[in-house]
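A.,

Following up on our hallway conversation. Structure tokens first:
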């Protein structure tokens, strides 16, 4: 039965990892001084999706990974307030932790050289 619980936790982490990925990509893009993106347009759809995923999967992660859940929430709040640099820092750290929990390592699309989970 413990294996089933662990599988559910890994699946929850993967879903949240994918939700965070879109916000991270938007934040890293808007934080690039060579790229102009209106901060009011920082991927509101991605932000809403990530918040919905957080609300849905947080109960599965809270018992063992409260710190990661809190870090994702903090990063999403920063992104929602336009703090793309702070959001990138918070969400990158959370994304790496979620990668460890889910067991699925991927590179963030569109950010090669900016974000690599192996670094």
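Then the amino acids I'd put at each of the 119 positions:
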């Amino acid at each position: 039965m413990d294996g089933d619980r662990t599988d559910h936790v890994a699946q929850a982490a993967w879903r949240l990892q994918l939700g965070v990925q879109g916000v991270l990509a938007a934040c890293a893009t808007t934080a690039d001084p060579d790229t102009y993106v209106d901060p009011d347009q920082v991927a509101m759809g991605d932000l809403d999706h990530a918040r919905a995923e957080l609300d849905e999967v947080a109960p599965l992660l809270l018992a063992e990974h409260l710190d990661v859940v809190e870090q994702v929430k903090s990063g999403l709040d920063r992104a929602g307030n336009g703090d793309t640099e702070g959001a990138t820092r918070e969400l990158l750290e959370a994304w790496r932790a979620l990668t460890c929990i889910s067991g699925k390592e991927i590179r963030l699309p569109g950010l090669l050289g900016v974000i690599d989970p192996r670094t």
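Residues 112-117 have pLDDT under 50 and may be disordered. Curious whether your intuition agrees with the design.

B.
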